[in-house]
Amino acid sequence: MASEEDSFNTITLKGTPVTELKVTDIKRELDKRGLSKSGSKTQLLERLKAQLLLEKLQQDAAQSSGDELE
């Protein structure tokens, strides 16, 4: 079973691992989400990964809530 850390390191955006994105692409995705675009590539990646993980958790929670209503 994959650990939570493994899942965090393999986060993808449109099928591409975020670690393979260029800085300009990372900044574009951060801008779409209203997040800061300043910092090193590592900082930008961590910020984007955290946001994508949060979005996934929120989506999963919304789906779970929807399942309970049916």
Automatic annotation (TrEMBL):
Residues 18-52 form the SAP domain. It comes from the Eukaryota. GO terms for cellular component: ASAP complex; precatalytic spliceosome. InterPro entries: EJC-associated_protein, SAP_dom, SAP_dom_sf. PROSITE patterns: SAP. GO terms for biological process: RNA splicing. GO terms for molecular function: RNA binding. This is SAP domain-containing protein. It comes from Lymnaea stagnalis (Great pond snail). The lineage of its organism: Eukaryota, Metazoa, Spiralia, Lophotrochozoa, Mollusca.
